[in-house]
Amino acid sequence: MGDSTQDQKQGWWQRLSGGLKRTSGSIGSAVADLVTKRKLDRAMLEDIEDVLLRADLGTDVAMRVAAAVGEGRYDKSVSAEDVASIVATEVEKVLAPVAKPLEIDSGKKPFVILVVGVNGAGKTTTIGKLASKFAAEGKKVMLAAGDTFRAAAIEQLKVWGERTGVPVIAKEQGSDSASLAFVAVEAAKADSSDVLLIDTAGRLQNKAELMTELEKVSRVIKKVDSTAPHAVLLVLDATVGQNALSQVEAFQKTAGVTGLIMTKLDGTARGGILVALAEKFKLPVHFIGVGEGIDDLAPFTARDFALALAGQDS
Which of 55, 106, 156, 234 has the fewest CB atoms within 10 Å, measured from its CB? Predict the structure, then answer.
């Protein structure tokens, strides 16, 4: 067994560091340009801070890294490697407290997971990948196509259901998503499912309308099980950069987000946004995605991410 786990780890590390190449590359080359030409001074530290801000690491983290780089190094030459290892260390400090696995409480049957996020963040695909993971762990899974506004989302979920051999509760497009959620929780109970994953709408005419819809879905679920939903996962697309901050704010208020999943880290040079989010909201980060494949969504580990972001070896 040891070997295949090692291979899996190695495979994931390659995907992760590959997926974060655009971010680590842009930080690395900018830092290398700065440090090769001159000795360390205040101006250089400000430039390093700017590089980190451009990668969306957030002001606090950028300042801390720059301060740590400056420590005891004034008027000396500093290497890009020094800076990278300080970036890795500081980033890991921020991420370690939020890197928490998603715990499925087996005392809650079904364990109801509401998945929220704006359209385009990869919500439905993420649900399919989670269903596949849970099923592979031997859990009995059910899916609910609660994004009833989009025919494509309903179809997509059905495809994932077929692919993973998991039942999907769905109604036709335009039906009421709250009543679908109600039916799904009852069906999962009757079927003694371990996990029920519920997709939700990501866009209505305006934000207020979307948030009202989500509140209604939550309320209706509670009628069947007062302790549910047991987890509310917000799926974020890393390529939206700073916009992710306002998305967390909006969904946290309405849906009571309990954890984050960040997708599309391979599509951006601003992968540092995950660090800014961790610093600001302190919400658990359960999974990250670095591609379309089923294995490209993996549990989030602070150290691996910090090293990959800084372009260091694992």
Answer: 106
Q: Which fold has domain 2-98?
A: Four Helix Bundle (Hemerythrin (Met), subunit A) (1.20.120)
210-259 pLDDT, tens digit each: 889 999 999 999 999 999 999 999 999 999 999 999 999 989 988 899 99
- The one-letter amino acid at 79: S
d(CA 191, CA 54): 49
CA–CA separation, 70 vs 131, rounded Å?
A: 47
pTM above 0.90, yes or no: yes
Token reading at 36: 């090769």
Return the axis-axis angle of helices 59-70 and 42-54, rounded to nearest 10°.
Answer: 150
Give span(s): CATH 3.40.50.300, the chain: 111-300
In the chain, which residues fall in CATH 1.20.120.140? 2-98
Whole-Å CA distances, 296 to 12, 45, 54: 8, 35, 25
